[in-house]
Amino acid sequence: MNEFDFIHQYLYRQQQDEQLILGIGDDAAIVRPRSGYDLHFSTDMLVGGTHFFPDVAPADLAHKVLAVNLSDMAAMGAKPRWALLSVALPELNKDWIEAFCNSLFALAARFGVTLIGGDTTKGNWVFNVNIIGETPCRQSLRRDAAEAGDDIWVSGLLGLAAAALDVHWNKVTLPAAIFAQCEERRLRPQPRVALGQELLSLAHAAQDISDGLAQDIGHILQASKVGAEINADLIPTLTTLKQQALPLAQLRQWLLAGGDDYELVFTASPVQRAAIMAAAERTGTPVTRIGVITAGAQLHLHDHAGNVIQLQQQGFDHFV
Questions:
Q1: Helix, strand, or coil here: 127?
Q2: Do 19 and 132 contact (CB within 8 A), yes or no?
Q3: Residues 6+ positions from 63 with CB-CB distance below 8 Å
Q4: Residue 309 maps to a domain
Q5: Same domain, yes or no, for 157 and 132?
Q6: Which one of 13, 75, 243, 264 is most buried, counting C-beta atoms within 10 A?
Q7: Cα radius of gyration rounded to whole Å, the chain
Q8: Do 159 and 241 contact (CB within 8 A), yes or no?
Q9: Quick one: DSSP state of residue 233?
């Protein structure tokens, strides 16, 4: 199999899409934007040895390659529409490629995403997705709109992926059943696309949690020129993980700075609490209030007793 066999046999799949004028097979794709909608563009790269282990199952890798990009669309409240995939593979292994592509297109179909282009080359395990989504004009969620007095919410459970990674790195041990749940979240994050779209009319600001809650909400605070108070004891996680005989500092590091969660952190006026809970129920997405936006410029972390929490690091940094 050569490069062009790979593209035409595995990546070229026609889908019904009135806005897609020309897809894979030419020098560029052509998309016709809908009147009254803004387009959103984002890209995420996954590199072997940095973002995934070399022995990862191709189906799991494909899921995550696309899911982390879908999460960016969720954070903007955007409906994901099209994606471009560029890959560097050391070889073209038919069985590996089939498993990868079947998983990738299954997730794409679930969220209504069409693969419209990209690039392929021989290299050492790099996957880059460019994703395009849309929202009604001037209705996107952004980082710069948080207001003092807003509630701070998070979706889902935090800290599971970070816990799984520490097991892989032999820093901790966990019972097999708990590790399996954490590992599932690490390998197959669930982008909160439906919740993001529901929040368009309810939330002020939003961000996906990819590098750690403390670091990612810091982007909202900086962009909005506000501060925040967060009660770490309110951050939702797996109950059985909390019940393990772990140092409290370790658990909090996972919850606040572990990263790889791909959940949403968002702010909204307290008057929206009932509407947000209703939106969470409609989309099957658990949400939890964990703090409040303040008029200051700092992030303050504390527990139920008011004790200040210090972190070893705020989150993940690719160059540290």
A1: strand
A2: no
A3: 103, 104, 107, 187, 188
A4: no
A5: no
A6: 75
A7: 20
A8: yes
A9: G
Number of domains in the chain: 2
Report how far residue 108's alpha carbon sits from residue 154's, in angstroms, rounded to the nearest whole number: 25
Kindly report the pTM of this predicted structure.
0.93
CA distance 115 to 94: 20
* Helix (H) or strand (E) segment spanning residue 209: strand 205-209
DSSP string, 47-63: EBTTTB-TT--HHHHHH
Q: Please, are residues 144 and 206 in contact by the beta-carbon 8 Å criterion?
A: no
What is the identity of the amino acid at 26? D
Residue 315 lies inside a defined structural domain of this protein: no
In the listed set 89, 108, 136, which residue is the last one of a domain according to the structure?
A: 136
Of 189, 186, 181, the C-alpha closest to 208 is 189
Question: Tens-digit pLDDT profile for the chain (320 aa)?
Answer: 655 555 555 456 656 678 888 777 778 889 899 999 999 999 999 998 889 888 999 999 999 999 999 999 999 999 999 999 999 999 888 899 999 999 999 999 999 999 998 888 899 999 999 999 999 999 999 999 999 999 999 999 999 999 999 999 999 999 999 999 999 999 999 999 999 999 999 999 999 999 999 999 999 999 999 999 999 999 999 999 999 978 898 999 999 999 899 999 999 999 999 999 999 999 999 999 999 999 988 999 999 999 998 887 766 555 44
